[in-house]
Amino acid sequence: MSAKLSDAAPETTRERRKSLIPLLQKIQAAEGFLSPDAVKRISRKLKITENEVYGVATFYSQFRFKPPGQFNVKVCLGTACHVGGAHNFLEVMELDKKLGHGETTPDGKFSLERVACLGCCALAPVVVVNSEVHGRMNRVSFMKLLESLDPPSPAEQTPGPPDSTK
Amino acid sequence: MSQEESKIETGFSGGNGKAAAGQRTRVLVCEGTGCVSSKSPEIRAALEKSIAQFRLAEDVEVGFTGCHGFCQIGPIVVVEPEGIFYCRVNPKDADEIVERHLAGGEPVKRLFYRHPVTREVVPYYKDIMFYKKQQRVILRNCGKINPEKISDYEDRGGYQALSRVVLTMMPEQVIEEVRRSGLRGRGGAGFPTAVKWEYCRKQPGDIKYVICNADEGDPGAFMDRSILEADPHTVIEGLAILGFTVGARRGFIYCRAEYPLAIRRITIALEQARQKSYLGKNIVGSGFDFDVEIFEGAGAFVCGEETALIGSIEGSRGMPRSRPPYPAEKGLWGKPTVINNVKTLASIPVIITQGADWYASIGTETSKGTAVFALTGKIANSGLVEVPMGVPLSHIIYDVGGGIPNKKTFKAVQTGGPSGGCLPATQLELPIDFDSLQAAGSMMGSGGLVVMDDDTCIVDVARFFLSFTQSESCGKCVPCRVGTRLMVDLLEKITQGKGTEQDLVKLEKLALLVKHGSLCGLGQTAPNPVLTALRYFRGEFLSHIVDKRCPAAVCRALVTFRVIPDRCTGCRQCVKVCPTEAITGPRSQPHNLDQSKCIKCRACYEICRFDAIAGDAIVIVS
Fold it and tell me: How far is CA B32 from the centre of its chain?
């Protein structure tokens, strides 16, 4: 699937430039990430060079350039979550799934993002899987959560999304 | 208390399900981010279903509100008009609430709020200490209205201020009113709002912009999110008044993408405001045109800085530029622009309707009005707290916050997020206002207040904040880009037990260099957590350096995990969760922990909690 770029581009350079970040967000929301092809399309539409588009997109931590996994795990590293031991979740992802920030497992199941505060500090530490918020986690409950998402049953191995090897 | 509980006035005449004469009963479910994540929309659906089954739909209305600011005990359900406050409600509890309370007239006691320390049961909203000890001005509507219904806001006096301003006041009068109120910017630095407005108003040219800064990036702060989710119209009203005052016709709300619910509520509110002619062409027939668009941030902390925020709207990398010229002179697209924080704008409508004198009567000589804090960390009641400026820190922590739970002791409170500092117990009587906090080496910041107990390591916290600012530094100026990196390296060295006393000297020197040499507020305030930690907790740094000990047993390189054989029942729970097979041992016999394999991940420590008699069998020592 690819996001429609059918709306006409704004006429003035200034307004085209202003619509760059919203457009990047729109495409990422539709396609999951910013592919080289998407960047090319944006570049043509807004008449901004690909270099410039990458320059802006790489500045902001929201944008990703690899497809997310089936379960995109966001670990909140805000103050309250840090004090509550959020770095443990990153370590579990590293040990169990061999994942660092912005990476996706080869089978396309899991991807990991570290995020600054999600504003749910009263529920700290917080982990978000896709868009579901899991509050008051600890290392053990996090491991259980991962297990519940991907039960270890050798019988059925589901293949990852088709474009996960990109 | 238990005797009183059973005789609660419910406003019902009895078990016939008919409300007493007068107001209709309203059941309000909180749908802020916190409560939504604990399934509050399901609760609302379950309540509606159950009410239909009991044929109470005529007498009882189910609605929802935004955040009450007490997310910790969510989901929250409030029954009006009697004001019964239910907390930690589960969708399964809906039937019981409807059957026993709404139909039967007897509230469900087990869902009442309990004071976390005294265990006292509190049935009514108004009696809960957490709320009772607050003075809610900015948060006046939070949890009281349906944020997606403009009429709820209007019923509580909403948009009267805007109408009065555009129909009867001159811009100079508005500035004068704001000046007399003494309002200072709530974004952190506390710059006098009226001065900024007047400066922008006086700039030549007829194209000007106004921006609401809702890029609340400070970790540990969620006030702006709650306000936008619970009362978006008040921010829009404040922004429109600002637009009228400085002569702008176009406004922006720059909101973090991490707050999807807030963005949705603002979008709805903007549409409703346009329909009611509070936005758009010829606002309420005054001839003043003004409209607002929402701009989503893309996850860069530095965009909370005003020039970086402008850069971001312009579609560039969000990098600050040097000031002056200030945005009020040359801002968005080079035009005069006023940028105000969410809380500043939310204060404007009240100042107009209630008067500058009323507002100025709250607070201290130099800091007027109220301050909103997001109280979190090791505190009994965590949530949003609004108190008059000038109250002591201890009031927030002990009276509103209910003190430190789990029989631990207070160690420090971190104010102002990564730009603020850690204040120790000796500073608990410090009055909370812009100037006192600054004098103590911290700052008001955007209002995060993270409480720490003796299980928190100050060196680790300093390292945490610095690594945050280091990774969020945009890289434009050298002191911030390189200086924060070097500081993080030094702090990491200390937490690993490899630091020397010379490192502390270096750290302090670097901190001052970064503070004085950086381009924008991010770098200028980044060293504050380290400087205050060194000022108030030097001993703890020395423990790490000289004794190679972490007194709070947090820093991994300096702690060891031990199994206490007398307490270990041999249940093998820890064996199962250990990721490195460091713990071994047969069932029913004390387990053995191989230090050479242990990676100190805490999994065993966390799971070893079941034995209430002997206590934890796994301990962390330093």
Answer: 13
User: What type of residue sits at position A55?
Assistant: G
**Tens digits of residue pLDDT in A82-141:** 888 888 899 999 988 899 888 899 999 999 998 888 877 878 899 999 888 888 888 888
Is domain B370-453 given the CATH code 3.40.50.2300 in the classification? Answer: no
Question: Residue A147, Cβ neighbours under 10 Å: how many?
Answer: 11
pLDDT of B322 above 50: yes
Query: Does the pTM exceed 0.80?
Result: yes
Question: Where are chain B's structural domains?
Answer: 2-132, 150-359, 370-453, 458-547, 559-621
Q: How many residues can be counted in chain A?
A: 166
Class in CATH terms, B559-621: alpha beta
Interface of A with B in 89-128 (CB under 8 A): 91-92, 95-96, 115-124
Distances (CA, A) of B201 to A122, B170, B283, B337, B427: 40, 12, 20, 9, 41
* A3 lies within 8 A of chain B by CB: no
Q: Is the dihedral of CA B140, B143, B144, B148 positive or negative?
A: positive
Question: Which residues have a Cβ under 8 Å from the Cβ of A148 and sit 6 or more positions away?
Answer: none
Q: Tell me the per-residue pLDDT of B76-105, one tens digit each, with 9 for 90 and over.
A: 999 988 899 999 999 999 999 999 999 988
The tokens of B420 are what? 């603020």
Would residue B496 be called left, alpha or beta, if left means φ above 0 and alpha means ψ between -120 and 50 degrees? alpha
Give the homologous superfamily in CATH for domain A71-151.
Answer: Glutaredoxin (3.40.30.10)
- B2-132 domain in CATH 3.40.30.10? yes
- Architecture field, domain B458-547: Up-down Bundle (1.20)
Q: Which of B300, B382, B599 sits opposite A59 (nearest CB)?
A: B300
Cα-based angle B329, B333, B336 (whole degrees, multiple of 5): 20
Q: Is A80 on the interface with B (CB under 8 A)?
A: yes
Provide the shortest C-alpha distance from residue A155 to chain B (in Å).
23
Q: Can you tell me the ipTM of this complex? A: 0.85
